[in-house]
Amino acid sequence: MKANYDVVVIGGGPGGSSAAALTAAAGHSTLLIERESMPRFHIGESLMPEVYWPLSRLGVIDRMDELGFQKKLSVQFVTNNGKESSPFYFRQHDPRESSSTWQVERSRFDQMLFERAAELGADCYDQTRLLDVEIDDNDCATGVRVRDAQGEEHRISCRVVVDATGLQSFIANKLGLKEINPDLKKAAIWGYWKDARRDDGENEGATIIMQTQNKDSWFWFIPLSNGITSIGCVGNNDYMLKQGLKPEAKYEHELSICPGLQDRLKGAEFQGEIRVAKEFSYTTTRHAGQGWVLIGDAFGFIDPIYSSGVYFALETGVRAADAINEGFAKQDLSGAQLAKWADDFKDGSSWIRKLVHAYYTNEFSFGRFMKAHPQHSGNLTDLLIGRIFHDQAGAIFDDMDAAIEADKRAAMSMREG
């Protein structure tokens, strides 16, 4: 580990590794550090189809198949009474190769990206803890302090710091830039099952989103390789964690009131331990300054429901790397330069945020809406794919917003009547 780099990237997840890979490939001395020992466990296993493009930029598409990850060709929804939607097959909307994606074990996936960054020239160190990012009175990042695997502390100067620290969001917390979304304070309880029943054929690897009977929570069903399925429950933080039940008991209770899971778990065997995470949705009020930039979950976090997290991490990592490389060429490492991509990214990702809010509106039915507005099926599939960075990405919401308000009024009338 040298004492000086052009770029220091903090966090060895998809965002950090992609940013480090592309700045190193452009010839800039790059340090990538990860707090945990690689490979390490991480949640966020279901990939949107649009990950194809940043993974292609990184040159790892062939490796995805070589590693034997479960192919994902569709997504499906199950209502609170167990009614299953027809699968949304991505290729029916877009027959290109990018319509096929993957369900991944993040330990292997993240390790592959970490190693790719090293192949392209980054100095990559795991078991290295960030102690501080040094930001002067002029909002300029000048370096970092870290503790390595041997316990030795280092002060490293650099010209750019890329914060890819995930939900820790180190710089945003240091500078007071985080804004929590009060309507999306969620918690997740999940675990892994062996031999849970999957659908046949092309829907075998589908992500399935299942509501519980009372609609106070929902389950993800993510088929992984080797017969293992990730099954997790998400609901409001108070509902999931503050009702006097231990997480194990709460998980069992929510399983018992999820009709879509009953048949799928017959004969299945729970593996390992119950895991818990608080997943508060937030944004950041600024995304870069002189010599620093936020990416991935450090930039902002929406919700796990549509599996956008890994795609957003990769996309912001690639975009930030391009802006950094251009900034070195122009000798401009200002916040405006390093975050020149951020407004476009926020515009696109806002449509996913609106779709999340629609799902959490209990009075609203996606099935009923699509029957009334079949012309929006392609637009909805675009959102589920992650194809959101174009002018018509939000075209569905004029009709959807009106339908949500109508459903709310109808529900209120029924309660009052």
From TrEMBL:
The enzyme class is oxidoreductase
Q: Which Gene3D superfamilies match?
A: FAD/NAD(P)-binding domain
Per the UniProt record, which EC number(s) apply here? 1.-.-.-
Tell whether Oxidoreductase is among the UniProt keywords.
Answer: yes
Annotated FAD-binding domain residues? 5-309
Claim: Zinc-finger is one of the keywords in the record:
no
Keywords for this protein: Oxidoreductase
Q: What is the protein name for this chain? A: FAD-dependent oxidoreductase LodB
| Origin species | Rosistilla ulvae
